[in-house]
Amino acid sequence: MSGLRLYALVYLAFLYAPIALLPIFAFNDGTVIAFPLDGFTLRWFRELPQTPALVASVRTSLWIAGSTALLSTVLGLCAARAGTMARFGGRDAMMGLIMLPLVLPEIIVAVALLVVLLALGLPLTGWTVIAGHTLICLPFSTAILGSAFRALDPALEEAGIDLGLGRAAVFLRVTLPLLMPGIIASLLITFTISLDEFIIAFFLTGTEPTLPVYLWGQLRFPQKIPVVMALGTILLVISVVLITLAEIARRRAAARATGIDSGA
Amino acid sequence: MPDQTNTDAEAAPAGRCPIIELSGAHKHFGDYHALRGIDLSVGAGEFFSLLGPSGCGKTTLLRTIAGFEALGAGRLVIGGRDMAGVPPNRRPTNMVFQSYAIFPHLDVGQNVGFGLRRSEGSRAQKAVRIGEALEMVGLAGYERRGAQALSGGQRQRVALARALILRPDVLLLDEPLSALDKKLREQMQAELRRLQRQVGITFVLVTHDQEEALIMSDRVAVMFEGRIAQLAGPQELYRHPASRRVAEFIGMMNFLPVIATGDTLEIAGLGRVPRAGLRSAAPDGQGPPEAGIRPEMFSILYPGEQTGRRTAQGTVRETAFYGDMTYYEVILDGTERPVTISMKNMPGRMILSPGTQARIAWDAESVTLFSAAW
Amino acid sequence: MAQADPGSVRRGRALIAAPALYALLLLAGPLGTIVLFSFWSQDFLALDRSPTLGNYAEALREPLYRELMLRSLAIAMAVTVTTVLLAFPVAYFVSFKVAPARKALWLFLITIPFWTSYLVRVFLWKVILGFNGVVNASLLGAGIIDAPLTFILYNPVSVVITLTHAFAPFAILPIYVALERIDHSLIEASRDLGESRASTFRRVTLPLALPGVMAAALIVFIPVIGDYVTPRLVGGPSGLMIANMIQTQFLKLNNAPLGAALAVLAMLIVTAIALVAGLALRRFSGPRG
């Protein structure tokens, strides 16, 4: 084994080190998250559904992440299309502003939005979190969809028009189906970012905390932590299964695209 | 270069009413002047080619006809209707794109039927039309194939079927053969020609391959820098190039320096000929006077062979064997730059080796004069 | 291709209107407000709107703020350097040494740990580095140490370790992409022209990968300098960073103007560093001479 390969494996071990602890403490029959271990139990998993605040925060996070994904992907579609079309005055400045959150620490976005919301006397709700999350997700959806638009042969849309379709029909029948992988990628990424985002949600959330905000509160109470570990384990398994499925789907699609024959 | 197109050829050929009439067409892209005053008329049922090097404006011209680019100035009439403000989807034209633009998310049948309106008959009737269109391009039974699984040649056939099924007045083809390998390209050239005769639709082809344009077209417009340099049939174009540039672009041509004294011309390496009776291309305002002569218009004579033609002497410098032909580079006596001579390989004819002295026959009739001043 | 086509310009403007308006209202507006706030002052519960530089003076003069700012900068730099240095060989390995068919699997393996909650991951580092944590338990168990180590948690070092882990894929992926773009015949050409493996790496591979390295550095640096969670969970009092103070000013001390001034200063630092990085990249990666 070459030195480089050995290093890469050690690095992988470093990446996995904290994750490996999740199941260990999720099944550990002790309230203290430390070694030595106390034996096997499933009670932290059983406690999960019996914690109403946690269930509520999961529900809140899911609808916030869903709305954010939808909103930022729709706005990202507009921005990406404009960004890959003919240049016009002010376009680059506007695109720069849309992409700006990428180079701003999230805490600054969070306090800036908080100050304005408070100054306007607007209440903090799930919608204020969605507004903030959409802002930081928009650069990601714009970038993903921008590369999807750039990968699209402009002749395909022209062919649609040439064959007699109007612009709207071409968008529905040609552009949208071809962009679908990019749209799905954008939805998944923005959903994930919103689901995991803490600092903006922490500043802008109202009476209904998102999952990360709820977890943040629990981390201060040592006796709640094994339940958090159990939840983390479940989330890890779900996301690994999901990305594995997405990867398999991607490979199938790629194989079909380069396949010799899809059958008559 | 002044506008010196052949005015006879600008009009549609006799017996054909014009389907496309373009006059005074200009197009700018920012500071770039892509079309600089194009006038042309394409006859119904004609196979018409736009030929030129890359950047000459031929694709822009095709895209203005299709409606993807608006004309800066000028007038475009297709089928008697002014096309100003008519979007591409309302024009009686369809296009075969350079990349073919086969929709990757649809199968072959869906691609071919893409432009059929909902109103145009039942599902079954459409299926019949799709089947017919595919049969016409030699892809019968391919309806359910995925677009991704097609070869380059098959994609092109699908693109053709998809456009022809709509029975346009004009089919526009943007370098449709450039992505194919040589063998397939030659096969498709013949097939496109056959298809065009069969359906009787006007074809306008964009190409940078002069051979392709000559083989396939009824008429060819040669374009340089946004202007039409010559518009003529293939034979006229080859035999009587209107300018030095056209002559260089179409086929191969030797250029020899010329000195004029009174009514006699002295062609370097070939000798004196009377000025009268020599054909002249239009003056192009550049370069010294030169005599142009195509490689096949020279013959290398057998030792001792008699001929009624004019003769000259030279030395073979290089030979290139092409199978059916041999190309010689010959230094004519008294010159420094070699001329290219092509000879058909025949039984009993030896291929001369470099260094051999050769006697060369030629005719004054096959010379075209190119000049700045005349 | 179709520049200056009035129809497409009109459609472009219409398309960008919604996202641009959104960014103007929810980003440009609030950022402007923050800047405005930073020149105002807080007088108990009331906001004094007369312009003043007092907040900036206090932010720069007060040793606590200055120290937090400098510490944030130092930690962010340290995290950036360690993350990029540790990540480069991995990106190089995946790009150059892994068979093409297995590259996707490696990238997949590298990204999987980051699909778990950021909060939980940071908390797990606390578990690893803690008094009864994995490191101490292992070292005690192996008899290497007699008493748990205390210097590995609640200080800047633990913050750096945790953040280096948290931002690993953000460094690996841009470097990997840059390395993938390198035409391998360039490397062969260098070897053919007589360069050794090492000098080829130094004279060809590294300069061509530099844009990716710079991108990685910025992608790590920017969120790290504003990180709030990690210093709070594993930093202890000596590992707190500027984001924690901004939060305190806004939510605890109710001194929004001072918090705003600190936020503006942090923004300025990020902008300055990004500009320097951009200029350096242009200076060093372009053709020389």
Structural account:
Chain C: One of its GO terms (cellular component) is plasma membrane. Chain C: It comes from Profundibacterium mesophilum KAUST100406-0324. Chain C: This is ABC spermidineputrescine transporter inner membrane subunit. The complex is a heterotrimer of chains A (264), B (374) and C (289). Chain A has 264 residues and is mainly alpha-helical. Chain A is built from 11 helices and no strands. In chain A, helix 1 packs across helix 11 and helix 3 crosses helix 10. Chain B has a domain of 119 residues: RNA polymerase II/Efflux pump adaptor protein, barrel-sandwich hybrid domain (OB fold (Dihydrolipoamide Acetyltransferase, E2P)). A 6-stranded mixed beta sheet of chain B has the order 6-7-8-3-9-10, with helices on both faces. In chain B, strands 13-12-11-15-21-14 form a 6-stranded mixed beta sheet, with no helix packed on it. In chain B, strands 16-20-17-18-19 form a 5-stranded antiparallel beta sheet, with no helix packed on it. The N terminus of chain B is likely disordered. A two-stranded antiparallel sheet of chain C has the order 1-2. The longest helix of chain C is centred in the first third of the chain and has 35 residues. Chain C is globular and about 70 Å long. The relative contact order of chain C is 0.13. Chains in contact: A-B, A-C, B-C. Chains A and C meet through helix 1, helix 3, helix 4, helix 5 and helix 6 of A and helix 1, helix 3, helix 4, helix 5 and helix 10 of C.
